[in-house]
Amino acid sequence: MISEVIDNEQVELLLNDVLETHGYDFLEYSHASIKRRITRLYALDSFVSFAEFRYTVKTDKQYFKRFLEEITVNVTEMFRDPSFYKALRNDVLPVLGTYPFIRIWVAGCSTGEEAYSLAILLKELNLLNKSLIYATDINPSVLEKAKKGMFPLNYLKQYSENYLQSGGTKDFSTYYAANYSLAKFDESLSSKMIFSTHNLVSDHSFNEFQLILCRNVLIYFDKDLQHKVFNLFDNSIENLGYLALGSKESLDFWPKAKGYKRIKQEKIWRKL
């Protein structure tokens, strides 16, 4: 058993190491949640001391990859919160369909389920051919998974139910081929996606978008960092473009929120 209890100062030292050595800035993440994840990993990998843990994170590139995977939260599913996707299908994408070209940014895309869900919606509305989905994440190894478009077959029952509840009318299995324990999604979907690493904390705006989705990422950030990210999005959204957040996230306390109007019941805002 590990007797050492990790204190706030140790967490701070470790996060400073990570920033200085690897260039990832977790200092403004919600302190409670990042401390919980660091403590969990430390216990899981049975280090002799916190000093050894710090040294390994700092010097061992392979181990840092594992650290990154454990510290960044990668919980996602296709068509998660079906009513949200229904709103995209009925209220948002048809408006964007009047544009000559649609650029969408899925920020914090994790293993890519959200990007594939969007591509399916666009395809069903005959808009995929004139759309481009930029899917970004801080974590390179989840992006590798996302690029492959392969998901465990045992998840597909839930994904299929979500799809139908979100207003899908086709047989969901037409979008993938089952291959042993994996479902591989159609390459016509991924051909309209660009996957790349992007750090919401330190990287800048890289394009102008009509729609930005950043769902269930900001709950792990503190208030100041959330506002910093909203400013980044504000610089990246065209006038009359849309910003979509997760069910527990909101623009409400951000100083520039008055420049956005919320659409119906969902966490979707339109830039005025």
Automatic annotation (TrEMBL):
Segments forming domain CheR-type methyltransferase: 1-251
Gene3D superfamilies per UniProt: Vaccinia Virus protein VP39 (3.40.50.150)
GO molecular function, one term: S-adenosylmethionine-dependent methyltransferase activity
Pfam (any one): CheR
Domain of life of the source: Bacteria
Protein name: Chemotaxis protein CheR
Organism from which the protein derives: Pedobacter kyungheensis
Lineage of the species this protein comes from: Bacteria, Pseudomonadati, Bacteroidota, Sphingobacteriia, Sphingobacteriales
